[in-house]
Specification:
Layout lengths: L1 H26 L23 H4 L6 H6 L2 H28 L2 H4 L2 H13 L2 H10 L3 H10 L6 H52 L6 H51 L11
Helix pairs in contact: 1-4, 1-9, 4-9, 4-10, 6-7, 7-8, 8-9, 9-10
């Protein structure tokens, strides 16, 4: 609770300082004082300093990031973090939730062969040599072989639910990244609009700063969507494929343990 309170205080201070800093910049005069020629009478020519007109007003991505104030930088750190997290969790899930990792073919062959021989201990050893979701489910059942088939079914069901929850928790991180990124983008949009209208309220807005504030709003929205859209697509595709694999695993597990009704434990 203390850490959450401290983090909230830091973010609130960053919001106030970042917006105050940018608003001060928005209210600053756009250029230096005008240069007036010598007074040659009523028709004298007055030369204005056109440096502000010649001054570049970049709205490049890097300029927007570095010129968005402390709060804007925090938003961009969050956007980059969610993008990196989405990539990391997507790649990790693609690798670890493959059907061949959840249901290793060598494990299925070894357990099936051992069950045909009626050797539960051999099947249990095969599970120990191939750690994974299917081996954990089968091990839970084989560990209760002496307690009756109903107990075996209950143990397998509990172990299967636990393995499914582990898989879903891994996938949920992708969904979290996909949900956070557009919210951070919306927060950046709100900040950009606040700065833009604060600049307009001065009566003599700095066009360069106004363009930068609007660019900040649009860039953050785009960055959030660029992360969220593919992350959601990957999440739903992996979730559907994982559900299919889990159904296969449960069906194969029940098929492999059906002979345990009358099997005898072979002592080695």
């Amino acid at each position: 609770m203390k850490r959450v309170t401290l983090l909230a205080a830091v973010l609130a201070a960053a919001v106030f300082f970042g917006i105050s800093t940018e608003r001060t910049y928005a209210q600053a005069p756009a250029g230096g004082p005008p240069t007036v020629a010598a007074d040659d009478g009523p028709g004298a020519y007055v030369e204005q300093d056109d440096a502000p007109a010649r001054r570049a007003n970049p709205t490049s991505f890097w300029h927007v990031v570095t010129s968005s104030g402390w709060f804007g930088v925090l938003i961009w750190i969050g956007l980059f973090g969610t993008a990196g997290g989405a990539v990391y969790f997507s790649v990790d899930s693609i690798i670890t939730l493959k059907a061949s990792r959840i249901i290793p073919p060598p494990l299925v062959d070894n357990v099936t062969r051992a069950m045909k021989e009626g050797d539960v201990l051999k099947a249990l050893e095969s599970c120990e040599h191939e750690p994974g979701a299917l081996s954990n489910v089968l091990t839970a059942g084989f560990s209760h072989v002496e307690e009756g088939f109903e107990v075996i079914q209950d143990a397998i069901g509990t172990a299967a639910d636990l393995e499914i929850e582990k898989m879903m928790q891994k996938l949920n991180w992708i969904s979290i990244m996909a949900a956070l990124s557009p919210m951070l983008g919306l927060l950046g949009t709100v900040q950009g609009m606040i700065l833009a209208f604060a600049n307009i309220s001065t009566g003599a807005p700095d066009i360069g700063f106004l363009a930068m504030a609007i660019a900040q709003a649009l860039y953050t929205t785009a960055a959030g969507l660029v992360t969220a859209i593919p992350a959601l697509a990957v999440f739903y595709q992996l979730r559907n494929s994982t559900n299919k694999t889990v159904l296969r695993m449960e069906a194969m597990t029940m098929e492999m343990i059906k002979d345990l009704r009358n099997v005898e434990v072979v002592e080695s």
